[in-house]
Amino acid sequence: MSRKIEIYDTTLRDGAQTEGISFSVKDKLAITKKLDEFGIHYIEGGWPGSNPKDMEYFDKVKKLRLKNSKIVAFGSTRKPGIKVGKDKNLQALLKAGTEYITVFGKSWDLHVHKVLRTGLQENLDMIFDTVSYLKKRGFKVFFDAEHFFDGYRENPEYALKTLQAAGSAGADLLVLCDTNGGMLPSWIGEIIREVKSRVETALGIHAHNDTGMAVANSIQAIQEGCVHVQGTINGYGERCGNADLCVILPNIKLKLGLNCIRDDNLKKLTELSHFVAEVSNMKPVENQPYVGGSAFTHKGGVHINAVMKDPRTYEHILPEAVGNKRKLLVSELSGKSSIVIKAQEYGFQLDKNKKITHKLHKLLQELEHKGYHFEAAEGSFELLLKKQLGKLKKFFTLESFRVIVEKRKDESIISEATIKLRVNNKPEYTVAEGDGPVNALDKALRKALHQFYPVLAEMRLADFKVRVLDEKAGTAAKVRVLIQSQDSEESWATIGVSENIIEASWQALLDSIEYKLMKENQKGRI
After folding, report:
1. Each residue of 333-376: pLDDT tens digit?
2. What letter does residue 495 receive in the DSSP assignment?
């Protein structure tokens, strides 16, 4: 049986130090439950001595019925010159009531002298006193050797003494930290091999990403014999972040063949990544390995053609192994194969050699040359395909629209849109005001259609983006408008391109409404 690697998540502490992230206690509890369901072995809940929020978390987390995870409280060694029983931070660790405690101590003599401003022996005593104090009270203790690799490179003998102090005091695990994130994998490997010859206690790794090497350094450490790896979901953390567990986990399991998480749980990895991003109010990184939206996305025609014959040609694993999915983009680069495949997704059988496929491919290239970008607007592409195949129902016909923007004496700006439509051969004429011209158009269009298609009340515009395609053309430049819409079941993107921003917005808005009506018609609701 392969050796087991323990996974230690520090999203709730290190991840919370990310610029732009601020977890509430409710957020931390929600993430805790998700990590436990996923099967993470240890969850570092926070530093109970540092703030009231973390103390509240440790009080409330006791009420959760966790099945897989152990909650860990985090803190530092005693302060210089203070007896361990009198240190307030340590007393707060005891009050947290966890079975496991992680304490960090200085292993770089630079920090001992310039940050702690104490002697080298006193620092060793601080480590020994703290670990032994906690062990005598029945706690499982992990010792984080802060800045260990930097310390070892400058003063190897002293860095080793800090580990030996923690080990002799009874630490259950020694975690080697690349706190500044400046190491390279070969350096990590060499140092760990030397440490293993001098220390008997089990080793772990805690890496930061300031050289972009956090995952590589973590994997190197595991290959050198470390049995415990620390990181955060999506690599959240201070500065450039921590080692990304969403990359480390599948690398351990699928590449190294080591036991770290159950196979069925690994299939929930993408879901976990997106859940934590949502709670953190952070946008998912599309090109994130394994779990990103682009991780198994193919655009080039040669790639798409090959992947459909055998996924191994351009995919290092099956996306389903980590709960992700394959995505084939339609663009001027993707060729006729992607059109055939997309048509199949929509229920139509096309052949690469048929005239309609050549026609669609040529039209696609022409539109993308004009500035359309269908890989970012698959809603518009589906409408385009069905129109060309004669399979799209006409829900209404535009006769005209007009938009007026008025600035008044009180400095307020009012946008008014007037729309003339024909629905079921009946004329409709509506006027609506909005915060801007696009908002006014949206309101007027919905107002005209609502009595015929009440389901439109279920959808809303989630995002609106404008990009100038040719900046050198100045105010005469073409613009591309992307609109993201959603209802309770799905989201979809639509596109418009024109020299007139109102017209480009109208195209994208019109597609958004037509897409919703098309889907509801397929369900038999209209």
Report:
1. 556 767 887 788 788 888 877 888 888 888 888 888 888 878 77
2. E
In words, the CATH class of domain 6-261 is alpha beta
State the number of CA atoms in the 13 A half-sphere of 235 facing the CB: 26
Contact 360, 351 (CB under 8 A): no
The closest of 254, 236, 233, 241 to 213, measured between CA atoms, is 241
Confidence of residue 1 (pLDDT cuts 50, 70, 90): very low
| Residues paired with 76 in a beta bridge | 104
Give the distance, in angstroms, between the CA of residue 233 and the centroid of all CA atoms in the same chain: 8
pLDDT in tens, 390-437: 999 999 999 999 999 998 888 889 999 999 999 988 999 999 999 899
CB of 137 closer than 8 Å to CB of 96: no
Please say whether the beta carbons of 80 and 126 come within 8 A. Answer: yes
Structure-block tokens of residue 293: 């939206």
Burial class (CB in 10 A: 0-12, 13-18, 19+), 420: middle
Spatial contact of 106 and 78, defined as CB atoms under 8 Å apart: no
Residue 385, SS3 per DSSP: helix
CA distance 218 to 188: 9
What residue segments make up the domains of the chain, in order of their start? 6-261, 297-388, 397-522
> Distance between CA 82 and CA 422 in Å, rounded?
83
Tokens of 165: 């102090």
Helices (H), 169-262: 185-196, 214-223, 245-250
Question: To which residue do tokens 């107002």 refer?
Answer: 447
| Residue 425 three-state SS | coil
Local structure of residue 520 (DSSP, 8 states):
H
Average pLDDT, the chain: 92
| Residue among 449, 414, 448, 418 nearest 432 (CA) | 418
Of 53-57, 254-258, 355-359, 403-407, the one with minimum mean pLDDT is 355-359
Domain 397-522: CATH superfamily is Alpha-isopropylmalate synthase LeuA, regulatory domain (3.30.160.270)
Which residue is listed with tokens 């199949």? 344
CB burial string 234-254: b at 16+ within 10 A, e below: bbbbbeebbbbbbbbbbbbbb
Q: What angle do the packed helices 501-522 and 378-388 form, to 10 degrees?
A: 70
